[in-house]
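Why do we bother with holo predictions? Because pocket geometry can differ from the apo form. Keep that in mind while you read this record for pyridoxal-5'-phosphate.
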Amino acid sequence: MTLARDGGTPVRDTAFPTYADASGRTFGPEEVAALADVIARGTLWRVGGVEVAALEAEFATYLGLPHAVASTSGTAALHLAVAAVDPEPGDEVIVPPITDFGTVIAVLAAGAVPVFADVDPVTGCLTPETVDAAITDRTRAVIVVHLFGGPAPVDRIVRSCRPRGIKVIEDCAQAYLTVPDGDGSLAGTRGDIGCFSLQQSKHITAGDGGLSVTTDPHLAERMRLFADKGWPRDTGQRTHLFLGLNYRMTELVGAVARVQLTRLKGVVDARRRIARRLVEELADLPGLRVPGLDIIDRHSFWLFPILIDPDRLGTGNAEFGAALVTEGLPVTAGYLDRPVHLVPALTERRTFGTSGFPLTSPPARREMRYARGDCPVAERMIDSTLLVLACNERFTDTDVADLVTGIRKVHAAVGR
Ligand SMILES: *Cc1c(COP(=O)(O)O)cnc(C)c1O
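The structure, written out:
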């Protein structure tokens, strides 16, 4: 079969369901009714409202933890977490180079320094070894990202960090209902704080929104205050205990998110069924590596990652991915244009004016310079080996069949 790239007929000439609109989102009349109730009550902010408080209680219960704090985005949820750890300016937070930049923003916005540790070449997640190698006497926290919904080895990272007083924050923006190695409990409950996003592209959404969870009442209280200007409203005093922001979730967002939470299990189950079919139909292709069948029920498939072996296939992810896109498939080579340690905000230290704060020394332990070569495994994944397929609970059998057909077609044509 001639590739569409070379003038052949594309496997697919209609759009796949996408998170960007109703075609790939799971909404119903319940969300509309919940919004109408909020408007009818007339309290649209959370102060004196019921929806956001209920969402916090319901989400905490869902995860089996005592505390959840709502905010305006996943980035805000992470900022709450880092701010609750309360680093001194220039203290260090270890982060992975393959993630949304929100992970890094939270560190910089707290006046702390992101230190990149390299990743596992298969999962793209931090490993206990790479984290250990990045720890210094200024390390205050690690942000572990469960990339694409795949479980990072968070328990082992916690075991090496906790005795040293280093907090572990789990970035679960892509990982609702992910189950890391260990006791079977969910991602977000293993470290000191778990952070989730309700942004448009995530498993469940209210447009934008964030949730931070913890068992620690002190961290919970600091996060609550930080999201509301440091204002201890429960005391009746109009005062500000420390610098905080206004990251308050609105009742409108809270109402939609509560309904979305009731749909979460269905969404993740559907994605796991789709992923299982993809694995079954693609696992035999030499030079391609898909997630193992054994991991499917512990992964939540925000995206479906495929690794290609450029030596075996004679081509890299860019060419392979472009051929798939031309066949009409929802694929992105590399996931990111570049690993996040190489974005201009860091390489050019565009933070606060031209100061370079907090990446200068002082306050940092050393002058921070971010450059290619810092994280060779992550750089190679993005530049050469990683492909991500959209994975959406609304994909039909035909959609899945077209994905398989397109990938097998391109593999046959380019693979040697
Ligand atoms: C989406 C995402 C974020 C940021 O969430 P927003 O709600 O977009 O601010 C942070 N980390 C990861 C891993 C994400 O996927």
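The first strand starts at residue 67 and ends at 71.
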